[in-house]
Fold:
Amino acid sequence: MSKYLRQYADHQAYKDDTTRPTDRSSVSVAGNGVEYDGKNVIVPYRSASLEMGDEKLYDLAEHREVILKHGTYNAATFDSARYVRSEAFYLLSYADRDIFVYKKCIGDKSNAYHGGSADGSELWAANNEYKVTCDLTQSGGFSYTCTPYSAAISGSCSWVAGATIASVVSQLTTGSGLSVKAIGDNAIRFSLSTYNNGTITFSGVSNATVLDCSLSARIGINGTPKGSHAGFQGQAVKTIFPALEYMAASIVCYCESGNNSSYRTNVRPATFKSYHSASGAAAFAAESEVVPMKKSVWDALATDEDATHKALYDKYGGDYDQYLLSRRIKKNICKGINATCREQGMAYTYALANCYFTDAEGNTKHVYPGAAICAAFGITVDGETTGFEPGNWYMNSCTELVEELTPEHVTTLNAAIATAPGGQTIQYRAQWAVGEYLGNIAWFYTPTCGALFSNYKCYSYQVRPLLASKRV
Structure:
């Protein structure tokens, strides 16, 4: 290695030298900086020398964490027998942690609404389930009604002694947000997806029993069940689990101008401009309004006789780009948003992942699947502690989501992600954050308008875990 350690007086001298090897690693000291060249440049793990896109590895020969420098990975010469890839790439550091972004989104659901139909999506909160157990040795029946979304769904059924559960299920009316499934020989699962905290109301129940599975909601697998209805997709976490009171929902989202931009704040300026130029507010909107004005409305302010309107135009020198940039979210702060700051992302992930319920088929399930899938994610190696195991990964906070999706970061991270088999680029995927907006709404990034946005917990969006490592 020392043969390929070179020193230059300054960076220009380094650039002028064309004799450095390209078929292996080399390290150059150029003035006060360090440059890495060649293929599969692997260096000791030092937090101070991390650069965007560096990948964290584990060295099985020396039993320690190391770094693969961004831009140097070469599959043909990479020693996969010696080095375990985390396939997670350096994003940022804070406090005592270095944060790495995993190569792709995880989850077993698809989402065609935002980000395409690729797998890797999860619900923020689970559907509510009900179990109806029918005594088919006697005649019976029941009726039900619910409003999963905007339209009510109602139905009824009846049976005579000796009927089959299939014949009962065939009578049931379902629709968007409501599904049913036969369980064994005599029970039915009703699964309710809702954005309005709706419940299923059963009436006229004869020779059947109804169980609301949300009654079993609890903190910890062996925790004490709530015993009262919990609207997983329609109630704030602290409402369902008062012991997690610190996880209060918040709709406050401050931008660079100091205003509360509520649910639509600029994350990716180019996309934000493209969207709002045509689809922004169609009339004058004060700077405190959620949706900024579209380009034609802004341009008309130049000759507007209303002093207030003209004052806003003059504040930004008539520059529409600067006006939109003032809607840029306050990076590093995301002031006021629940689970906003980086320190909260991991704590909130594991708190949410520790909330369970028992479903209609008797299975233990997570109340908050998006957080739970991140908490459970990991890479294990027999006999080694790599730092990639479950317990080190989590669901991003709003701040980390904003930091991850800056245009500059996305470009670098996507180049790094491209080196990992099965990697998914970042920018076109709607992605959940761990924070709540309201009882039935959580924060996420929307690629449609390039903004930190909010939407219903019953939707499936991408979930991309972050790896947290202790700084060294």
